[in-house]
Amino acid sequence: MIKFENVTKVYNNNVLALSNVNVEIDNGEFVFLVGPSGAGKSTFIKILLKEIDPSNGKITVNNISLTSLKRKEIPYYRRKIGVVFQDFRLIPSLNVYENVAFAMRVTGASSREIRKKVPTVLALVGLSKKYRAFPHELSGGEQQRVSLARAIVNNPALLIADEPTGNLDPDTALEIMDILQDINRAGTTILMATHAKDIVDAMKKRVIAIEKGTIARDEQRGRYGYED
Predict the structure, then answer these.
(1) What tens digit of pLDDT does each residue of 188-215 get?
(2) Are 177 and 203 in contact (CB under 8 A)?
(3) Using an 8 Å Cβ cutoff, are 218 and 33 in contact?
(4) Is the pLDDT of residue 28 over 50?
(5) What is the average pLDDT across 145-154?
(6) What is the DSSP string of 7-71?
């Protein structure tokens, strides 16, 4: 699913963000990406989303070589990846149904497909009764559920979650993690960047720890901390 081969990223100000990173993530895995602020997690994700290019190395995602991907092909590549952010990034002028439907419209889905799929996905995240509500009428947890629904409505093979519980209280965060686990069990590969030590330690998934731009740990059933 994801393969980084000798990936290095040096920004224009000579800051080394990633240094000779080699990582493979298989189809269907649930992987936590952890590390202190400034360690390189955001750079790792931006490279995956083709927002920036590496200085050296090769990246393959779902059998697509990002290093040889043409600019005009990038939007089509991104449509195959679901992304969930800490700050939700919903469109405030659209209601819940419309926010999720928008993600399908940009891929050229028909109105019939949208009418069939959106209610199903909203039911999955527990928002069937809130489909007419606007973002400002929702709690933070509900907004993140909409964000999740939007991210998975096009059946992505890969879901990238960037601090999805960062703005949520502990109980709501656990509810979001339950939904992510359901999505993963259905076959979607999940890469989640997080600082939530309690969640990482409780879930016992694979943990990739980045520190100063390098892979400090890569453990199955890992923990957040750096202790052995």
Answers:
(1) 999 999 999 999 999 999 999 999 999 9
(2) yes
(3) no
(4) yes
(5) 96
(6) EEEE-TTS-EEEEEEEEEE-TT-EEEEE--TTSSHHHHHHHHTTSS--SEEEEEETTEEGGG--G
What is the percentage of the chain residues whose pLDDT exceeds 70? 99
Q: Are 187 and 159 in contact (CB under 8 A)?
A: no
**Span 76-82, average pLDDT:** 92
Residue 228 has pLDDT above 50, yes or no: no
pTM of structure? 0.93
- The amino acid sitting at 208 is I
DSSP E strands, 52-153: 56-61, 64-65, 81-85
Contact by Cβ (8 Å): 76, 61: no
147, with CB counted inside 10 A (0-12, 13-18, 19+), is buried
Query: Torsion over CA of 131, 99, 140 and 223, rounded to 10 degrees?
Result: 120
Distance, in Å, from the CA atom of 49 to the CA atom of 78, rounded to the nearest integer, reads 7
Identity of residue 105:
R
Task: Answer whether 54's CB lies under 8 Å from 41's CB.
Answer: no
pLDDT class of 13 with cuts at 50, 70, 90: confident
H or E stretch at 76: helix 74-78
Locate 176 and state its tokens. Answer: 């979001």
Cα–Cα distance, 216 to 199 (Å, whole number): 20
